[in-house]
Design goal:
The radius of gyration is 26 Å and the shape is elongated. The protein has helices at residues 13-20, 26-34, 107-114, 148-159, 235-242, 295-298, 302-310; strands at 2-4, 38-40, 56-59, 78-81, 85-90, 139-145, 164-171, 179-188, 196-198, 205-216, 222-228, 268-276, 283-287. The chain is built from seven helices and 13 strands. The strands form two sheets. Strands 4, 5, 6, 7, 8, 9, 10, 11, 12 and 13 form a ten-stranded mixed beta sheet that branches. Strands 1-3-2 form a three-stranded antiparallel beta sheet. A hairpin with a 6-residue loop joins strand 12 and strand 13 (283-287). It has three domains: 2-59, RNA-binding S4 domain (Structural Genomics Hypothetical 15.5 Kd Protein In mrcA-pckA Intergenic Region, Chain A, Roll); 66-160, Pseudouridine synthase (2-Layer Sandwich); 161-321, Pseudouridine synthase (2-Layer Sandwich). The longest helix is centred in the middle third of the chain and has 12 residues, at 148-159. Helix 1 packs across helix 2. The model is unreliable at 317-321 (pLDDT under 50).
Length: 321
C-alpha cells in the first residue's frame, strides 16, 4: 500500500505510521522499516526519519513465515512402529499438522517428540512424515513416514488406491440401500468455504466411497461401514450427507436440531488401515480400537466386525451379508 502524508509535518516516520496503521504495533512498524519493507519516497530510511507534507510512504507487509514445528511431549497411542514408519490411533480433537489457528499441539508436534525428530522431511515444512490426513474430529488409524523413501512409497500407494481404508460412522438416519457405491466429484463449496460439496456442474476431483449398512437402531440412527477408494477432504461426511443421512455430531454437514440426540463427538472413526510395507513388501493391517461412543451400535454387530477383520481388502467383505 502507499500512503501520502497529509498531516504530521516533521513527525517521525514510525510515529506517523503508528497513527496511520493502528493495527500494527510500534515495534512491528520499526522492524518493517529496518527490514526495508517500508520506504519513504522510495528510499530506505530509519524509523527516526522525519516526514513532510506530500511525502509518499510505501508499506509492504510480508506474510508470516510458518515457524518450524517443535517436539512436544503429547501422549500417543501407537499401533505399529519400526524404523520406516509409524501407525497412530489419532484421538478425536487432534489436528494433524500445524496451520493457521493451530500452531502447536498437533500430531506432528507429538510425533517429533516420540520419534526424536526422525521423520521424513520431504512432506513440507509443517508436515514432516505426513502421508495422509484425518479431520480434526475424526479418530483412528493414521500412518506417518520416518524416511523420505518410505514417505514417497506410501504416498504413491495412497495415490494409486492400493491401500485399504475402512471407516465406521454413525448416521442420523437409515440409508435407503444396504450396500451402495457413491462415485462423483467433490470440490470446495462455492459459498461456504469451510465445506466441501458434490460438484454437479463439473469441477472438483473424483471421490469413490463404498457404504455398507451394519445396523439400524430403534431410533433410526445407523452404523455404516465405509471403504474409501479415494481420499478427498471430508469425503465420507459429504457422501453421507449427499445420500440424505448426515453423520451424528457433524458440526458442518448436519443441523443440530435434526439430530435424534446429542453426541460428544463426530461419529467417524478410521477403524482399519492396510498398507504394503515400503521396504519389506509385507502387508501391514492395523486396527484402531473402536471408541466407547460407538459401542451402542457396534455391540449389535460383533460377528460382522469379526468377519470383516478376516478380509484382506475392501472387496472381500461385499459377500459377507
Amino acid at each position: 500500500m502507499t500512503l501520502t502524508v497529509s498531516d504530521g509535518d516533521g513527525k517521525r516516520l514510525d510515529a506517523f505510521l503508528a497513527l496511520a496503521l493502528p493495527e500494527l504495533s510500534r515495534s512491528r512498524i520499526q522492524n518493517l522499516i529496518r527490514e526495508g519493507h517500508i520506504l519513504l519516497n522510495s528510499t530506505k530510511v530509519k524509523s527516526r526519519a522525519s516526514v513532510s507534507i506530500g511525502d509518499s510512504v510505501s508499506v509492504h507487509i510480508p506474510e508470516d513465515k510458518p515457524s518450524e514445528p517443535q517436539p512436544q511431549n503429547i501422549p500417543l497411542s501407537v499401533l505399529y512402529e519400526d524404523d520406516d514408519l509409524i501407525v497412530i490411533n489419532k484421538t478425536t480433537g487432534m489436528v494433524v499438522h500445524p496451520a493457521a489457528g493451530n500452531k502447536d499441539g498437533t500430531l506432528v508436534n507429538a510425533l517429533l517428540h516420540h520419534c526424536s525428530g526422525k521423520l521424513a522431511q520431504e512432506g513440507g515444512d509443517n508436515r514432516p512424515g505426513i502421508v495422509h490426513r484425518l479431520d480434526k474430529d475424526t479418530s483412528g488409524c493414521l500412518v506417518a513416514a520416518k524416511t523420505n523413501s518410505a514417505l514417497k512409497n506410501l504416498i504413491q500407494q495412497f495415490s494409486e488406491r492400493k491401500t485399504v481404508k475402512l471407516y465406521l460412522c454413525v448416521a442420523q438416519s437409515e440409508p435407503k440401500a444396504t450396500h451402495q457405491t457413491v462415485f462423483n466429484n467433490i470440490g470446495r463449496h462455492p459459498v461456504h468455504r469451510q465445506r466441501m460439496d458434490v460438484c454437479n456442474s463439473g469441477g472438483g476431483k473424483p471421490a469413490i466411497t463404498d457404504l455398507h449398512l451394519l445396523h439400524t437402531a430403534n431410533d433410526g440412527t445407523s452404523l455404516i461401514l465405509c471403504a474409501l477408494h479415494t481420499g478427498r477432504t471430508h469425503q465420507i461426511r459429504v457422501h453421507n450427507r449427499f445420500l440424505g443421512h448426515p453423520l451424528l455430531g457433524d458440526p458442518i454437514y448436519s443441523k443440530p436440531g435434526r439430530q435424534p440426540f446429542r453426541v460428544s463427538r463426530l461419529m467417524l472413526h478410521a477403524w482399519r488401515l492396510g498398507i504394503t510395507h515400503p521396504k519389506t513388501g509385507e502387508l501391514i493391517q492395523q486396527e484402531a480400537p473402536i471408541p466407547e461412543e460407538f459401542r451402542p451400535w457396534c455391540d449389535e454387530v460383533t460377528e460382522h466386525l469379526d468377519r470383516i477383520r478376516l478380509s484382506k481388502n475392501s472387496t472381500e467383505f461385499n459377500d459377507l451379508w
